[in-house]
Write a structure and sequence with these properties.
Elements lengths: L1 E3 H11 L4 E4 L6 H7 L5 E4 L3 H15 L3 E5 L3 H4 L2 H10 L3 E7 L22 H6 L4 E4 L6 H12 L7 E6 H5 L1 E3 L19 H13 L3 E5 L1 H5 L3 H11 L3 E3 L14 E4 L7 H8 L3 E5 L20 E6 L13 E4 L2 H14 L10 H14 L10 H13 L5 E4 L2 H7 L7 E4 L9 H12 L3 E6 H7 L2 H7 L4 E7 L4 H10 L14 H8 L2 E5 L17 E7 L13
Parallel strand pairs: 2-3, 2-4, 4-5, 5-7, 6-7, 9-10, 9-12, 10-11, 12-13, 13-14, 15-16, 15-17, 17-18, 18-20, 19-20
Antiparallel strand pairs: 1-8
């Protein structure tokens, strides 16, 4: 049976298990949109294509499944770039489908042409550095091969975005429907069997240590290794610090949790790492700039190191390890826990983490090194209120990471999604919109007023599609990080950081959503009657423009 290429692409998307496609139609992609008309795939019309890319990334990150975004040629594709670059940095399986001018227009200056011919934009080159695979499909005879390559990269253990650009006339050509039978949709087998000697070597290093420390990275979450991580920690009494992206790998309200390690944190984990630990297990953590305090060599000096990661490129990328293991974190931790039990490795000397944190806080306060002063008390109180109000868990997409990193203790029931990747402002709201239907819990997006104005219109996407969302907007009338750096490093020579905000109550009213403004901790009572599971709430938290967190980005 013959079907059009556009129909084949939609059937391909359905076979991949796609349930949503975020995007915006245009003339060059309408055949595929027309084929989506009868599909069960839900299309979500965005206000800007960057929002589509962020929504797809949020969906993939929350669900672990493939997401899709669809746009037209030219600006439709170019507007995706920042969001797809973020998905690439985050290793998110995002399928990008864009239209293109008909092949017989190539090189002639067709409207929105991106073929690279005749001086036009070269979309293949544009996406080459931010996708795992990209193809301009000029003919149908090799289409099954192209789709096979797409599946291979989307289902890889280290996936990333795949972009297919399909000219208008190719979308309308016919192909054999059986072409899909030549495509393998099977996920690859585990590539990294765990060699037994690595477990024995790990046990030997742990047995010989007095005060081991676990640094849990995002690999622990990606491998769903929270349970064996907790068992290993509790079996031997090993404290756990997490990277920012891995908050929640261990319940941060538990007795062995040191909180988040990193330059924008309060520093409890850093002090324990530097002054207490003699063995460090780096599990699925890249130990990048934030986590390593710009690769401070003092942190790991004189310590034994075990590093485990499923990606060979991450092993020993920034430090030498006594034992480097390429393995799935879930498999490694389960095997390690079993070996520790079988070999009866004794628990380590008790570590009173609560007392250690209190003593560290007292020292930093006395030295005037506390990261936050009283001007942030209402922000601290808000995150404390969140912990109390949602004991069964919430999901937080976070652009403004410094507050949640320090004030919000992510429980085992929470989902925390900080703005990592390429750290693009304006990420939290569209990412949360994309993920909201997959999480089954109240969804929050925390964002500064600068980032908010990059994505505010996507709130209407949530309104249009009936998506419940809670936006926490920090209003200090400035690009906070830029102003902080210009204050600390450039002698208050403020330039292009301050601005005037709209009246957010009126803005919310125009969107048809609820609004609440908080200027101090006492006003948290306003939140008592709000419904956080239905509709959209804009919670505006007012900050002093001249209040800066006391940390150094070492820039």
């Amino acid at each position: 049976m013959q079907i059009t290429v556009s129909e084949l692409i939609v059937r391909f998307m359905e076979r991949l298990g796609l349930t949503h496609a975020f995007g915006m139609p245009g003339a060059h992609i309408l055949p595929i949109y027309d084929s989506l008309y009868a599909s069960k795939i839900k299309t979500v019309l965005v206000k800007h294509e960057q929002g589509a890319a962020f929504m797809a990334g949020g969906f993939a990150r929350a669900s672990g499944r493939i997401a899709a975004c669809i746009t037209t040629a030219g600006p439709g594709a170019t507007n995706l770039v920042t969001g797809i670059a973020n998905a690439y940095a985050e290793r998110q399986p995002v399928l990008v489908i864009t239209g293109e001018t008909s092949t017989h227009f190539f090189g002639k200056g067709g409207l929105q042409e991106s073929s690279g011919e005749g001086g036009s934009i070269d979309q293949v080159a544009l996406f080459a550095g931010i996708t795992r695979y990209h193809k301009l499909v000029e003919r149908t005879d090799y289409l099954p091969t192209v789709l096979n390559q797409a599946v291979k990269h989307l289902l890889s253990r280290t996936p990333g975005p795949v972009a297919l650009s399909i000219p208008y006339n190719v979308q309308k050509e016919t192909v054999d429907a059986d072409a899909l039978e030549r495509i393998s949709f099977a996920r690859p087998l585990d590539e990294h069997a765990l060699p037994a000697p690595h477990i024995d070597e790990s046990v030997a290093l742990i047995r010989a240590s007095r005060r081991p420390l676990i640094i849990a990275g995002y690999g622990c979450l990606r491998s769903e290794a929270q349970a064996p991580l907790r068992r290993v920690s509790e079996r031997l009494g090993i404290p756990v610090a997490s990277t920012l992206k891995a908050k929640g790998a261990i319940d941060e309200r538990s007795a062995l949790a040191l909180g988040s390690l990193g330059v924008t944190s309060c520093g409890y984990a850093m002090h324990y790492l530097e002054h207490k630990a003699d063995l460090v297990l780096v599990l699925g953590a890249a130990f990048g700039e934030r986590t390593s305090y710009a690769w401070d060599t003092h942190l790991l000096a004189g310590k034994k190191l075990i590093q485990v990661d499923n990606c060979a490129q991450q092993l020993e990328k920034t430090f030498r390890a006594d034992l480097a293991v390429q393995a799935d974190l879930g498999a490694y931790l389960q095997a390690l826990d079993a070996a520790l039990a079988a070999q009866r490795v004794p628990a380590k000397e008790p570590a009173d983490i609560g007392a250690f944190i209190a003593a560290t806080r007292a020292r930093t306060d006395a030295a005037g090194e506390a990261i936050f002063d009283h001007r942030f008390d209402h922000v601290r109180a808000f995150y404390g209120w969140l912990e109390q109000r949602f004991p069964d868990g919430l999901a937080l997409f976070d652009d403004n990471i410094v507050f949640a990193q320090n004030f919000y203790r992510v429980s085992a029931k929470d989902r925390y999604f900080p703005n990592t990747g390429i750290s693009s402002l304006g990420h939290a709201i569209p990412a949360a919109i994309g993920a909201a239907g997959e999480l089954g819990m109240p969804v929050f997006a925390a964002i500064g007023d600068g980032g908010f104005q990059m994505c505010a219109m996507e709130l209407m996407t949530a309104v249009n599609h009936g998506i419940a969302l809670n936006v926490v907007l920090f209003n200090n009338r400035t690009m906070g990080l830029i102003r902080k750096n210009q204050h600390h490093l450039y002698h208050d020579r403020f330039i292009d950081c301050d601005f005037t905000n709209p009246d957010y109550a009126l803005l919310a009213q125009s969107f048809g959503i609820r609004h609440c403004r908080l200027e101090n901790g006492a006003q948290l009572a306003k939140l008592a009657t709000m419904d956080f599971r239905q509709g959209i709430n804009l919670i505006e938290i007012v900050l002093d423009q001249d209040a800066y967190p006391n940390y150094s980005s070492r820039r």
